[in-house]
Amino acid sequence: MDVVDSSSWRALVHFVDEWREISNLTLDHLEPWQIVFYTLSVVFFIQWARKITKYEENLSFMWLLNDILIYLPGMQKKIEGFKEASRKEIEEKLLRFDRKKEFYRFLPDRGLSTEEIVGEAAEYKIMGDALFSRGLLSGASLSDNDENYQRMAQKIFDMYNSVNAIYPDVFPGCRKMEAEGCFFHFHKKPIICLVIRMLAQLYHGGSKSCGSITISGTESILLACIAYRNRAFKLGLRKPEIVIPKNAHIGFAKAAKLLDIRVVRVPLSKNFEVNVSAMKRAISRETCMLVASMPSYVYGTMDNIDKISQLGIRYGVPVHVDACLGGFLMPFMEHCDFPVSEFDFRLSGVTSISVDLDKYAYCPTGSSAILYRDEEFFHFQCYTEPRWAGGVYVSPTLSGNRPGSMIALTWATLLFNGRLGYIEKTHRIIDAARLLREKIQDQIDDIEILGEPALSIITFTSRNLKIPIHIVGDEMNEL
């Protein structure tokens, strides 16, 4: 055995000596500084190439070829022809319910009467009523048509239409709606709540949980990215990266573009959930946030938030759960006898959650929230400027002035429905989604459900190349 080991060692030494001699002969004409320079250049090139292939805005041969082709002689004319045809098609589609096709192009010299304005607004509303009455909308508008709710919402809007939430000392009632003051009964124990506190309780936040009401899911996502980027800067990271699934909400890419954050996109598994092993490999020293979808905006599938939470704990990286579309149903699922795995602040690695309230909470359009496990993360979200000539300026969200009517209507809507109301709605929504899924699987041979939809989003494609799925979607709108 020793003889074999000795022979192998001599062979290895001989091989290394041969390569050393070959290298010396090859580089004999170079000075030492040149060898060092070329070596470092190769190392830096390899590092650069790894980063280029890692980030979403990498060099793509197809994109480069496309940029070259569009400037070839004659191509610009063809492209302009396609653009004009598309413009006419879009214009025709958008104006199909507008009989008059007349527009106000200038501000009128004299103000119109209230009767004229209300009458014309009613005509505009009728344009969209056709789609509602024919049942051809999917996800564009989620509203509660209950007459009692509509009357209450009108009264709340009239009371708070002129309220500006940026001045909590001037409008303390609006501040209270956003920040405190109601009783919500869970597990037979009354808990003092606010809009944010109610939401934090739904997602099992502790006493230190906090957050903000925002004007959209995109703003909620953007604020989370701001918070974790600022935290990364404080920790000394100069080029923060966010690691997101390929099917994550487009708001993350938008936020990264605005904030100059690098995006690392993680591939999906065969079930259209994020590949957790690939996410682990994507984590680097510059990673400032991991993202999980609950559910995926595109496929309706649930990422394995438990395992992603464990990654966050292991590598010390905050984990953000995006629950913008459909995530409000999750807290009520277990009350409807639907099995639900842990997805929220019960997982110690989850540090923030974004949830839209204008979807399945039936709050006014433009109502969303960003929740944090701890005040530490929330502080990184806020903008403060003590040296401004106008005084100390503090803003927790992107907006300066914030409409108090939206906060008041959100508060009122949550109280109007209550826990039992949302449980009932969740039961009906999940039952309808599962019925749709079963009908598609059992009765349409050429259509395939993608992944394992967990909530209300059902994504399907065509198995038959002769049936383009996007044309199917267009035809569904014309039924």
From TrEMBL:
Enzyme Commission number(s): 4.1.2.27
Compartment annotation: Endoplasmic reticulum membrane
Keyword Membrane appears in the UniProt entry: yes
GO cellular component: endoplasmic reticulum membrane
Annotated GO biological process: carboxylic acid metabolic process; sphingolipid catabolic process
Entry keywords, A to Z: Endoplasmic reticulum, Lipid metabolism, Lyase, Membrane, Pyridoxal phosphate, Sphingolipid metabolism, Transmembrane, Transmembrane helix
Group of enzyme by EC: lyase
Pathway: Lipid metabolism; sphingolipid metabolism; Sphingolipid metabolism
GO molecular function: pyridoxal phosphate binding; sphinganine-1-phosphate aldolase activity
Principal cellular location given in the protein's record: endoplasmic reticulum
N6-(pyridoxal phosphate)lysine PTM positions: 359
Superkingdom of origin organism: Eukaryota
Keyword rRNA-binding: no
Cofactor: pyridoxal 5'-phosphate
Lipid bilayer topology: Single-pass membrane protein
Family: Belongs to the group II decarboxylase family. Sphingosine-1-phosphate lyase subfamily.
Protein name as it appears in the record: sphinganine-1-phosphate aldolase
Protein source organism: Acrobeloides nanus
